[in-house]
Amino acid sequence: MKAMNAKELVVIGCFGAVGAALEISLGTLLHTFKFVPFKGLLMTSLLVVILVASRILTGRRSAPFMVGAVIATLKMLSPGAVYFTVTIAILLEGFTVFAVLSAGSVKKPFLPVLAGICAAFYSLAHKFLINGILMGSEIFEIYLKLLRDASLILGMKPSDALWLLVPVFFLHVAFGSAAGYFGWKLGNYLRRVTRYEKS
Amino acid sequence: MKSPDSLAPGIYGYMFLMAGVIAGFIFLSLLFQIAGFLFLLLYALVFQRDALSRMARWPLIIFAVTVLSVSAIHLESGAEEYLKINIEPSGILLGLHMLMRAVSIFIAAQIFSVRVPVLDLTRLADAIGMRGFGFSLGVAFHMLPEVHSIARETRDALKLRGNFRIHRIHATKQWLIAILVQLIQRSDEVVSAARTRGFGSGKRYRYFPEWHAGDSLIVTVIIVAFILDSVLL
What we know:
The structure holds two protein chains of two kinds. Chain A is mostly helical. Chain A has helices spanning about 5-30, 40-60, 65-75, 85-100, 110-135, 140-155, 165-195. Chain A is built from seven helices and no strands. Chain B has helices at about 10-25, 30-45, 50-55, 60-70, 90-115, 120-125, 135-160, 165, 170-195, 215-230, and strands at about 80, 85. Classes of the chains: A mainly alpha, B mainly alpha.
């Protein structure tokens, strides 16, 4: 694989700066409000737009991963409390978008939309993955216990709770696909407007 | 109190520390987990106090209270009743164990982010195949104030035209696009400046970050802990 030239690296740095600015300002603000629902999904969608656009604009397969790594590093360096989980999430979302977009051509929006959906679902799975690492498998027993307790309070069967996941599922598909599509459109638009050349 | 320079670990030592903490809480017995946690806490208190002080914030306290209360309180019968809340002593122990594990990983991650120089991080990324990562990171770091000023100027311009009042979502989209377009247009100047300074010309070398004596010390401590655990318990 040919090494990236200065122009591509600078553009990756620009996308990284925008992503990091979003993560450090909006991400930190949302992180402060512990009980805001789907804040992870919102941040992931914004990140997907930037990652997909970077891939479309530079034409480099590894661009989303590089942008993700730049954002994660800047987030790690920013002052504040513990950013371990967020840093891991950004890195893995960058890798997810990179892996999906590497599967084929990005001339049509199919793969960007798929990448957006995969990244959105990763944001759903992230809490379970990171809680598994941080607190061990015991946390899943507690989740089940909470589910049983909640069903006792609400007078529902624990299996009925699965129906609650249906709108969550559709919300992730909607946000992920919209972000992937918008990122694809944005990348192509930037290519036209800035008359981007690889030189 | 600072650690002696000769024994200060580098990037590898802190990476092994993080990996060792995670692996330790998976494979070691409870006794060694507690010993490891106390050792790590003591090490952080003595040598990495600034990393610890960055951690001591409200989110961590809320996290600790949530973990303890969620694991201890439940509604099933058979639990002892205090203040009309059902509390399970085994749940408290489970919560404490999970908290110990999470705090240990947080401490190791925090020490890594505070102590590892960005230069070492970029060198390692460069050496393992992400060529140019350090350059991109540097560009992003220096572009951050630029992003801030462009974002403010563009937002003011959009506000003056009344866009944010009429089409809020459309204006936000325009805002993001305008920021990116301006940044990419300015990137040409950065490329020219980098080329003037000789970027991309000549042979590129790979520099792995140096291995420090402190790295060997951390690796040895982790290996010894694993061996002792398998021999003694």
